[in-house]
Amino acid sequence: MNKRTEITTQTKQNIIDAFWELYCEKRIEKFTVKEITSKAGYNRGTFYEYFTDVYDVLDVIENSLIPSLHELPPISTPTETIGMPLDVFLNIWEQNAKYYSVLLGDNGDPAFASKLKDSIKPAVMKTFEDKPNIDKRELDFILEYILSAMVGVMSYWFGQEDAPSRDELFRLMHKLMEDGVMKHLPR
């Protein structure tokens, strides 16, 4: 990599880092390009060499955190049940925890959860494409339900002081998916 490319890459990363620091503190509509560039040590013109606006920076960050189909490990179902890849999902979550906890938090981007689910859903759907008697429309709703629950539970998990361990959470989520929620509520 030549010197100019290294400088360009570092400048862009510095702007992204400054944006992220501000984004962790307040909602995106509450800070400006001027605040980002001031924090990063550049002028506004430098910002616009790399990004069109603050939402463009957010898109760059989010897109770097969304696993693409080829990055996900193969998903298999050893039984006829829909064995959601909880371990895969937890691993992705833990690798990106500092970002996911903010993006999926109260001050985060409401669209990020959909982007995340939409990146994982095709891999799971592909697992069932050769199964007979699968109603793809119904499967799509089932996966939306499960992935929404997983995103919600993991967001909640990261925000708790006295959270269960990763293994405890894994077991609970697996039981809920296999047995259903109603079996685990007090009667």
From TrEMBL:
The keyword Transport does not apply. The chain crosses the membrane at residues 141-159. It comes from the Bacteria. Residues 32-51 bind DNA. InterPro entries: Homeodomain-like_sf (IPR009057), HTH-type_Tx_Regulator (IPR050624), HTH_TetR (IPR001647), TetR_C_Firmicutes (IPR039532). Coiled coil: none annotated. Residues 9-69 form the HTH tetR-type domain. Keywords: DNA-binding, Membrane, Transmembrane, Transmembrane helix. Gene3D superfamilies: Tetracycline Repressor, domain 2. PROSITE patterns: HTH_TETR_2 (PS50977). The keyword Transmembrane helix applies. This is AcrR family transcriptional regulator.
